[in-house]
Structure formats: structure tokens, C-alpha cells
Amino acid sequence: MINAVVDDLAEHTSTKKACDLLGRARGSHYRAKQPVVHGPAPKPTRPAPPNALTLAERAEVLAVLTSERFVDKSVAQTWATLLDEGTYLCSMSTMHRILRAHGAAGERRRQATHPARKKPELLATGPGQVWSWDITKLRGPGRGIWFQLYVVLDIYSRYVVAWTVQNGEDSEIAKTMLEHAMGVQGIPEAIHADRGTSMTSKPVAQLLLDLGVDRSHSRPRVSNDNPFSEAAFKTLKYAPVFPEAFGSLADARAFCEAFFGYYNHEHRHSGIGLHTPASVHHGTATEIRAQRQATLDAAHATHPERFGNRRPQAPRLPTAAWINQPSPEALIQTA
């Protein structure tokens, strides 16, 4: 209503004076008269430059670019070929603009497609079902000298079932190690590894095929697909006693002999209820957990005030070990 009064008064004077006389802010008056626009303001239409191509010329350029002769060539290749033949239609940037306007921009050549790698999903509910193995480098006595450490472990118990240190990576060494391990520990249902040359080699693949062992491999460049081997290597290399370099192959083997003896029989692993891998692998962890619980119960009975309202519980043993556990929704769908 005030806007109409301001407009009436502005016919006899100026809008500024009318707003001053009526006590109306001039900015508010102008804003109130503008229509309400929801969303971003429309962009002004850019006038066509005087040197723009005509519609017929644009159609000719598009026809040439999408012709059978040039449809698989880049704009630069097309522009240069036509120029060599004495034909100039427009600049390369104009060709790109015409293609974008018709939804034909981007890579015009046929592209190689790679199907997505299937995510490995492995489940172990007890020892001896699924093994994981990998190879890591150990620094030698000089520059460029490395030893190769092969390690095979049971993903449920974290027990190292086989290992060897060699001068190099070789598929026959891997085959012999796995064959010996299965002769001692039994044949697992599946063996998981990454996509190294030894892991995907024909000797190893043929051995597992002959023994009826399922092969599983990580996706390319996805280290999380082999978490148990990676975690074991971190435990090894971050140990305080791990040296910066080994003086010889014999030194590396002696160190690993001591370390894996400790790892299997003394190291309390957080992933298996703080039991040793050997205890879980050989089935004594249940009895040890019962002894732990009895000790905790006795401590609670002696000093219950020290535990508040919660009775102490010994860490539970895991019921399963997964490599890439599916989501609950996926498990329901496959049930």
C-alpha cells in the first residue's frame, strides 16, 4: 500500500523526495516493486557475434565431423586433415563447441573396457579352512639386495603354517612351500593371495587344482583384500627387534625362525581374544579361556567393589574370520 502512495507522490516530485517525505527507505521501495524470483536468476542471452558461423555452416561442420571418414578421429586430426586438403571450415575450438552443443563431445575413439573385478568373500569358522599367503621383502646387506619372505597363515587362528626366506621370488619355491604345508597341516578348503606373479603362476594354480583347493585372489591394487597377511607383516616389521637390514640370507632365516616361533606360541593376538595362534589352531583356547574366567571370578569375589556393577569377562573367541564380510542385507538376500 505504501508503494502506491510513494508512486503517486513521485509523479509530482522525485522518488527520492517522496520516500524521504513518507519515511520509506528507497531501497525497500525498489525491492518491493520487483517481482519475486525463486531460484537462480536467469542468465542474459549472449548476442551472437558478427563473425559467427551461419546455421548452414554449423550444419556442414557437424556433418563433416560425424561423417564415416572422421567419426572416429579427434577434432585436431580432422582439422589438420582438412587443412592439408585445402579446406578450412572453422577453428578447432569452434568444432568443439558445435560438438558440445549436439552432445557429441568427449573421447570419440573406441575405448577398452575392463569388467569390474569381483570382491573376494571368504569365511572361516575354524582352523584349517582358509589360508592366506603373501611375499614381502627383507632388506639385505647392501644396496639393491633384498631377500624374499614367503608366509602362509590360517586366517581363523592366525597360525603361521609355513614360511621360507629365499634370494628371489619363484613360483616353484611357492609351490614346494604350499605342498609341504598341506602335507603337515592338511588341505584347506581355500587359499587366498594377491595377484603377484608367484601367486597366479601355473605351478601353484595346478597344485591347488589337483588338490581341489579353491583359489582366491585380491582385486588389483586393493591391499585390503588380503588383510591377514598384511597385518602379520606389520607385526613383523614393527617389532622392536626387527633389524634395519640383514647381513646374510642365513641371518634372515635365523631371525624369522625365532620370530615365528614367538608369534605362534607366545604372541597374544588381539583378533583372537588375546590367545596365541597355536592355542586357537590346536584347540586349547576354550580351556584357557575357562581358566581365565575362573581367575576373574575369584578376583571379583575377593574385591567386588573394584569392578563396579559389571562382572569381569574374559575376552571371547571369535566365531568366524572373514575376508570382506558381506553386508547384513547381502547375507539376508543370499540366505
TrEMBL record:
It comes from the Bacteria. SUPFAM superfamilies: Ribonuclease H-like. InterPro entries: Integrase_cat-core, RNaseH-like_sf, RNaseH_sf, Transpos_IS3, Transposase_IS3/IS150/IS904. Residues 123-285 form the Integrase catalytic domain. PANTHER family: TRANSPOSASE INSF FOR INSERTION SEQUENCE IS3B-RELATED (PTHR46889), TRANSPOSASE INSO FOR INSERTION SEQUENCE ELEMENT IS911B-RELATED (PTHR46889:SF4). NCBIfam families: transpos_IS3. This is Transposase. It comes from Nocardioides massiliensis.
